[in-house]
Design brief:
Two copies of one chain form a homodimer. By secondary structure, the first copy, chain A, is of the alpha/beta class. Helices cover 40% and strands 18% of the residues of chain A. Chain A is built from eight helices and seven strands. In chain A, strands 3-2-4-1-5-6-7 form a seven-stranded parallel sheet, with helices on both faces. In chain A, helix 7 links the parallel strand 6 and strand 7. The longest helix of chain A is centred in the N-terminal third of the chain and has 28 residues. At the A-B interface, helix 1 and helix 5 of A face helix 1 and helix 5 of B.
Chain lengths: 218, 218
Amino acid sequence: MIDTINVREAIETENGRYAALVREKLKKSNTYLINLMGSPGAGKSSVLLYLASLLKDRIRIGVMEADVDSDVDARLMENAGLLALQLHTGGACHMDAKMTLEGLEHLPLESLDLVVLENVGNLVCPAEFDVGANKKVTILSVPEGDDKPLKYPLMFQVTDCLLVNKMDAAPIFDFDLTRLRENVKPLHPGLPVYPVSARTGAELEAVATYLLHEMERT
Amino acid sequence: MIDTINVREAIETENGRYAALVREKLKKSNTYLINLMGSPGAGKSSVLLYLASLLKDRIRIGVMEADVDSDVDARLMENAGLLALQLHTGGACHMDAKMTLEGLEHLPLESLDLVVLENVGNLVCPAEFDVGANKKVTILSVPEGDDKPLKYPLMFQVTDCLLVNKMDAAPIFDFDLTRLRENVKPLHPGLPVYPVSARTGAELEAVATYLLHEMERT
């Protein structure tokens, strides 16, 4: 255990240097980077596609799809008319800042207002790595349960915004939004929480407005 | 990236030595160990509770609950009358063989036929670590989607048995069991796949019978 943790710290220090380079690069091209995180199947791709459909006439969007393997998500994004880049983490369970910088170098940043990095589906590892993004957005889905902040606290501590997806399925799952908020509160008071549905589009216009507002503030 | 992978290999070699110690220990006490894996919220605890209720009059069961933090799951197991031990991975996204051995040392193995290790909710990291278990069981849940084998192939390659949970929710999700089987097949021909529901209990009697049969064969 101790060895593992020390190794992680060493990587993080190097990671911090690369995160600074990512921020510098984004500032130069005036591009906003969102680090989108969540469990496998939480609906990261579906929410992203819906948000992109709301935003694409207002801002220019690029997508980086990080996966352990496959190009399923990048093809999905391209089929929806988005500029998409597939990144493979080579077995790693998260993106780090160096990989993010390499990805950004393959995108025409000067002509993009927003890049969304869809991280590897995972509630643990991505929380530990600053990739240099302007905003961390985490998606939790209703079927995962309202107890997840108790079991994966770091993710809820580090994120800047929480979307609770698949709200349309809430009636058939034992999921209580109030209980979720209570579980989140001690970890991260004031965290914006949006109950949404990528299927019905519920509340995603509000999320799009929030993100545009945050981009303007930067 | 290359550094990270080399570190992982070094850990794995040490891990292999501990996995052998785990196997030796289990053999001595004639205890069977299941490594239960899956995403956060796939239903690992719920399925385990249901299986335990089916098996508890036939075999003596102990549970090790691995979490990054919290003792939510161990309390859940204890409330159901199971002998449960909470393990904290100290931030790590998976259990390794050394941590498993330490956990087993805190259980009265001589009086247990079966120990189930509920791994950290994660489709990536736990797949990479042999904890010395007799059987790897992975739970994928319907809301996660039938494309997950494409995106997290290693888990489906290494597991010995796949349970597809929340089948009762299939009608409201775009989930096709045939498509899932097609996605699994090239990765792991012949993998036993059980569509189940921890809510209705569907097919879990068949899973219990399968596991008892596998235990007898050992």
